[in-house]
Amino acid sequence: MCFLLLMHYDFAVLSFNHAAEVDDGKKNLYARQLCILIHEALEDIPAVFGGDFRKDILSMPNGVTHLSLISGVLKTLSGLRKMDQASLSDIRNFVAAHRDHDALRQLEVMRRIDTRWLLALSTVFVEFLGNMAKALIPLLTEMGNPRVVIGHLLKK
Q1: Percent of the chain residues topping a pLDDT of 90
Q2: Threshold 0.85, pTM exceeds
């Protein structure tokens, strides 16, 4: 959950700065940073909520229910990944990570960042973060239940 909160905070700050900025160069910098954040999230979130996490959830009394809810939200991320991964990877690799030293190619990729595309992508991404938080709240509530805590301690 903390991972998602930190990601959401970074996203909120970058989104605000992107929206409020009037200088085109700075606005493009914030757009590139937003693209990197989303790109990294598309790679990291499935790993964070992968096998070990799922195994731990299933050890909870209502684990199957929690896993079903969280898995449903995670599936929306795979749709986002299929639609926009290639564009995000180009921005990350050619511009932000400076993997390609061709300055003209970098400028071309930078110019192609469409604000409407980024806004639509950002809307879907922030909706995902909100839905993930909603899905995790019942799990966290159950984890804090004294009976569950004592039950886990007794198992060890």
Answers
A1: 40
A2: no
